[in-house]
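Agenda item 2: nicotinamide-adenine-dinucleotide complex prediction
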Amino acid sequence: MAILEDPIKEVLELENYINGEWVKSDSDQFSDVVNPATGKTIARTPMSTRKEVNAAIEAAKDSFPDWRRTTPLARVRCLFRLKELLEENFEELSRVQTIEHGKTIDESRGETRRGIEMVEVATGIPSLMMGYNLEDIATGIDEYVIYQPLGVCCHIAPYNFPFMVPLWFAPFAVATGNTIVIKPSPRDPISQVKLAELVDEAGFPPGVWNVVHGHKDVVSVLLEHPDIEAVTFVGSTKIGRDIIYKKCGETGKRAIAQCSAKNYMVVMPDCNVGRTIPALMTSFFGNTGQRCLAGGNLVIVGDSKFYEEFLDAVVDTTSRIRIGYGLDEATQMGPMQSIDGKERVLAYIEKGIEEGANLRLDGRQFSVRGDYPDRYFLGPTILEGVATDMKVAKDEIFGPLMSVMRAKDLNEAIEMANGSDLGNAHAIFTSSGKDAREFQYRVQSGNVGINIGIVAPMAFFPFGGMKDSFFGVLHGQGRDVIRFFTESKVVIQRWL
Ligand code: NAD
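Presented output:
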């Protein structure tokens, strides 16, 4: 099958989007954005200076009073225009994700669709943001709640969904009347540049939506700045808990920190095998395992016969996954996004073997379709005989590595999952409603899959984990995020 056309023809010099203008950074520090399939540099990202981050915050602060006074209906008209532009540019946006991240074009199209859905749901703000009231809390006295925007908010993004994750927050932030500064991941920031170009075209007033590039120094400025009221972060637990949530606590900022995951996929002997195996393939190996919703540990419940037959089928299906360039529509798994990420997975394969696991499928042996350097590529690996106390079972690995465990019954499987420090998205595969309910009732994860391997976030439901997978109170998306981006004010009135 033909390779789709690459949407970027020459190396891009990325600029910040501040106050409705594209501004070249004065920084002398840049990092390269590399297409992991071809190994070619496709853009240079500036590590923006303190002055530039401050300018973005100031622009967002200056635009807040007018934007806040713009009626909710008028605010969402900008989002309606943005939605149309996103649809018109759907394919280009998707291809950009593939070339800067490595994911397959189908995965990118899914990401674009999910991102657009956030914008669609945020257009409901005139209804979603309403308060409530009660007449006669005492004779002749009424009381009501109104929701008001906070001011300047910021979002700090991870690399694994470069287009969608900022859209989990930004449309809701601006629809509720806030202004925002987005800091994309320096590893794949082009998607946020393309998005901001469309935001600009959609006619948002200058300063409402800003993008500043960079890494930890930019984050420090955002976290310390007194004019940032709320911070949303998606990334690793190490950064989310120890830096973002801690600093927001010290400075009194609202925070959502959606963090790492190590998801258990529990397979019961009464599952529909024909439907379960494809679901496990996308869960463990989709996005090359770089998803907070990815399966990490596969727990097979049942006797030896079921275990052997099921695992044989999993190994066989996994070994046939087609690895290649994401712009080749026949590819089923793209490269890792970075060499560091690949090396991390390789180290965990070694560690797993050292800890006593059995290598059932060795992803270090693989072939890439087409003529591409193999530096970023890695095949899917299956380790069998993994125990809950091994590092491969406990740590988030974030790559195409499946650790297989056995449990004698559902109770043991739930206890294994609940022994994890992380609790993002555990799942069960079964045809028993009773077992499914028991799992849903007891399992400690913020998202639960029942015969679903990826508990995909939908814009109209809240999304966030438990334990060390989440820090905060209100989750992203759904009604939670609208509440997060607004302050509630209670009014009690009596007219004499
Ligand atoms: P990361 O924590 O390395 O980086 C996230 C963001 O933090 C980036 O913008 C980065 O520039 C910034 N950052 C990195 N180091 C920093 C430091 N020392 N100080 C301040 N800021 C810093 O995460 P990542 O590797 O980009 O993304 C993968 C992680 O994100 C995984 O752990 C994954 O599970 C998690 N994730 C979670 C969810 C969720 O909803 N729970 C969704 C997607 C990804």
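Discussion summary: The chain has 17 helices and 23 strands.
Owner for follow-up: CH.
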